[in-house]
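Side project, low priority. Logging it here so it doesn't get lost.
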Amino acid sequence: MAMNSSKPPGARQIYETLREQVIAGVFGEDGLLPSSRALAVELGISRTTVTVAYEQLLAEGFITVRQGARPRVASAVVDRGVPDSRPKRSGPIRLSAYGERIRSVPVWRDQVANQLVADFRYGDLAPSDFPAGIWKRAMNAVMARRPGPLVYNDPRGSRRLRVALQGYLWRARTLRCELNQIMIVNGSQQGLDLCARLLLDPADRFVIENPCYAMARHVFSGTGALAVPIAVDGEGLKTDMLRGVEARLAYVTPSHQFPLGGVMTISRRRQLIEWARQNGAYVIEDDYDSEYRYDINPVPPLHGLGNSDNVVYLGTISKTLSPTLRIGYLVVPPDLQEVFATAKQLIDRHSPVAEQEALASLIESGAYESHVRRVRRLNGERRQTLLNRLRLAFGDRIAIEGADAGLHIVVRLADLPSVLELALIEEARRIGIGLHSVTSLYDPAIAEAQSDRLSLVMGYSALEIRQIERGVELLAQAVASVKGRLDERTR
């Protein structure tokens, strides 16, 4: 729900905005409004504030409320509003089956305007880490060249960049491939979308880690395919649970399981490849942050273990350079080269060329790998600061997972049960920090997979050292406040 002010809205402002939207038909006749909990999280305010606004709308007859259900626009409410000269829709919104399936997927919301002291959101990078000077020079060099014909390019991407990546993947990940197996995509998310479109049909089954990268689950489910969630532990996907499972595809993050951080062992990797071979299935290997290793040695990718004809390797520069550049890449099996290139062409012809050429020049010159080493060191310092401060603040009252690699950790708090997750997130945002739960990353149908202890995913790569230090102090305050209220209720 859009608000005109950057300040947290009050109940009156929420009421007036929702009232106008209901009258204007934004939610449709008999349409559902956001739940008070979801709207409170979206706006970064107390759930009580939203409840007051909803109670006023209910009292005036704009909405109806039923126990355990989201508020709904009251019948014939449009007749109460200001006459609208816009043409009215003759019936309900008509979407494709795909459109209907994705209506429930949460829309990303920009939280930058909240002016938090520290937001531990995972996946973001610090602006100061971006190599602005070398990137600017690389882009200037690309733009200064005499332009060739202004024509559509190869949907697989810049040949120069694919050649550079071919060498980089061999040096950095011991991954050998032919040039035409590499395809440049608009970030890893487009790579996932291509895999979903080409490898899944409605009612097919796909294996996915539990918990997992939620955007992957959504994009695969959007095809109408059915998720088969498989639990993970410190060694990654529990491949013994694949016995008897029939599926067309398996999505895994073997080098650093998202979010819990386990590294899949060689034996499990081989078991997964063998399962895929026996089932005629493909494995999507998302190597989203393999550049970041701290206390462990790199593990070879699945793609390099024997026959890789059923492995699609997915990489990105979103965790090394910037997520705003939208450059990712696929390494597809030889038999899939043509169909993936055709699908990419139909979606958007090809990815922007100038940025690809600039990245290619950075890889060719060695500047990219030098930059990776620099940001690995910087993020190692951030990681160590976060670990030290958490242990100082909480001692043995926390458990930390996934700290050996990547750009985030998972923190489990012994002081609070998981049912107080929303209360802690609300209190933390009130005093100036952004916290993010592990709960939404689990398959909602398998509640027993979640820990009884309140768990947080804490990213650190977008924060300066002082923000991390202050953020942990505020986290301790928020935990103490919520725990105090809990103790009062249980006396």
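Brief comment: The mean pLDDT is 90.
Revisit when time allows.
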